[in-house]
Amino acid sequence: MKIIDRFFFVCFVLSFILVVASLLSMNLFILFFIKDLDLIELTKNPIFRTIHVILAIGSIINWFYCLWFWNKYDKFSKSGLLLYFPHILYAPFYYYQVKIKKRPLKGQQPSRPVLLGQKTEIEDREMVESTRENILDILASYQTEPGEDEEKRNLLDCWFDFVQADDAHFKAAFNEDERTILAYFEEQLTIFRSAIHKEAPTDTFQWGHVQQLSESTMAQLRTK
Questions:
Q1: Which of 1, 12, 178, 189 is most buried, judged by most C-beta within 10 A?
Q2: Which of the residue ranges 108-112, 193-197, 217-221 would you say has the lowest mean pLDDT?
Q3: Hey, what domains does the chain have and what are their CATH numbers?
Q4: Do the beta carbons of residue 71 and residue 103 sit within 8 Å?
Q5: Which of 4, 7, 14, 20 minimizes the C-alpha distance to 60?
Q6: Helices H, strands E: what count in the chain?
Q7: Type and span of the H or E element at 197
Q8: Is 3 helix (H, G, I), strand (E, B) or coil?
Q9: Rounded CA gap, 55 and 73, in Å?
């Protein structure tokens, strides 16, 4: 525990003692007022007055600290309003809740619940963004040189397994011009795919055409 935290903890203890002592002294005063008037004389005792001043100072510091803490970290908690009334008497109880018991703080305004329609719209938007990102990643993968013919076949098949031109998310992810560019890419890719499945092995020159096609397609998409 840091020194400053220890200091405020001591102030909390002093504040708690003052609250308890105040409640006890009030009850004792009511019970023994008629029989024992010396209770009033006790408050005039220098030692008693010194102790009371120390407790009062600690309580005031604890109260100001709780007000600061509530405004900075817990301002959307309704319990903090009690720091204004009964103010000092409530401060040690608030301190106990947030610093010792460590209840969840409410420093931010509660978020509004997402309606079903809004949730669906958010999910659709995320799906559209994911579709565009995945297709661009597949395009970029064709700019590398796979080692084996089997890897080339699998990489070419990946486009046709994932990209569906009639899919609503695909249409939302790319505008009409971009879809035209991707349609041409798929048309050319179909030719290379047919060749690589029929003829093995496939030479590097043919895959170089795929790389050039991918680079050209990516460049055209950046301008749209």
A1: 12
A2: 108-112
A3: 3-100 (no CATH), 116-222 (1.20.120)
A4: no
A5: 14
A6: 9, 0
A7: helix 176-198
A8: helix
A9: 26
Instruction: State whether the Cα torsion 206-211-214-217 is positive or negative.
Output: negative
- Beta carbons of 211 and 192 less than 8 angstroms apart: no
- Which residues lie below 8 Å from residue 87, measured CB to CB, with a gap of 6+? 63
**CA dist., res. 46 & res. 43, Å (int):** 8
Q: Is the peptide bond before 104 cis (omega within 30 degrees of 0)?
A: no
* pTM of the complete model beyond 0.85: no
**Are the C-beta atoms of 109 and 22 separated by less than 8 Å?**
no
Provide the b/e sequence for 161-172 (b: ≥16 CB within 10 Å): eebeeeeebbee
* pLDDT grade for 178, boundaries at 50, 70 and 90: very high
CA distance 164 to 174: 12
The DSSP annotation for 152-175 comes to HHHHHHHHHHH--TT-HHHHHHS-
